[in-house]
Amino acid sequence: MNNLFKFTIYVFTALGVAWLAFVVGAREQYGDLSPTAEVLDEDGSIPQDADLFPHSLPGIAEQGAKDYLALGCMTCHTQQVRMVEAGFDVERGWGKRPSVPRDYILQEHVLIGNTRVGPDLANLGLRGHTLEWLHQHLFEPQALIPESVCQPSPFLYEESAEETPGYIEISSMESAARFIKPTPRAERLVAYLQALKQNYELPEMAYVETEDELTDSMELETSSETDSANDENASSGAPTWLAEQISSGKEIYMKAAPGGGLCFTCHQANGQGLAGQFPPLAGSDWVLGDKEKLIKISLYGLMGPIQVNGVDYNGVMVSPGIPPGSLTDQQVADVLTYIRNDWGNSATAVTPNEVASVRASIKDRAPMQMWTAAELNDEQP
Predict the structure, then answer these.
(1) Which domains does the chain have, with CATH numbers?
(2) The pTM is what?
(3) How many other CB atoms are there within 10 angstroms of residue 228's CB atom?
(4) Residues 139-173: pLDDT tens digits?
(5) Torsion of CA 248, 254, 255, 259, to 10 degrees
(6) Nearest alpha-carbon partner for 282 in 305, 320, 311
(7) Which of 225, 272, 367, 369 is most buried, judged by most C-beta within 10 A?
(8) Orientation of helix 329-339 relative to helix 240-254, angle to 10°
């Protein structure tokens, strides 16, 4: 009985400490957040008659937020422009500044999201998309962006083969013209998407590291790491071409702009991935194993269940590149050679000719048809 009492005390103590860390600690760090002005007076007070941010959503957009949640949009889309040390979201055009906690204080459900399969939507309303474009993207994304992996939502619309008042004419993957009419749910959802704007400044942004500051520090760090890696390769007898390929591959792996792979966003800079979400590349049997499988995944992406080093994962990986699948044979070879030779990995290089050969062998595969682990394993002799 005495042991049971002690165990109960330990459990409640642990829960109390966790509550203090997550609730009281957060309140201590961020304070009692409320809408504020873009610029405060010298004494830190809000100027009289100042416009306060963030704004509340208009009524129809607020209803659309519930549709966004119910449809599972946050499974593939985030609404958080990340701090510059976590990725160059500003450079991608996803916002002019990183998101901060105050941006979310008026949300009934904080829709930051789970993973980034598609682009961040925190500032979608600032990207200049027309009402018609947004409706068409919901109806048939691939007609606008062929490489998109977003699921079409035709159930949100009424269709007609003929021009009809109140219907929107859309371009389509089919040859015949098509017309769609948004349901009330589609109208609410689009109103919400158009309202997504973090186009105001907040006082706390003065304490956030700017992209230029981080870029300068990263360039110094990368230069130092490259010199160190070159010295190590030289001392180990590694050929110059391999060192150059690894260096190029690392740049592609870490780059979040056209010509880059955007790989680190999921698999992290240390190659360890994120537990339960994105598998590691360091020590991965898929990375160090059959090169043909690895090349196929890089060219078309991967979806569904996969086991990496005995651990099960289930998700989607789009092919590297901005936009996805845009890397050249040389770039694919470089980034694959890099991940096969960093974080303790050691494996033979991937050549552009090998990538070109695999690309030619699967040229008849549908552009949007991602591989599955089962399919890749079944193909092997």
Answers:
(1) 59-194 (1.10.760.10), 210-379 (1.10.760.10)
(2) 0.54
(3) 10
(4) 988 888 877 778 889 999 999 888 888 899 887 66
(5) 40
(6) 311
(7) 272
(8) 100
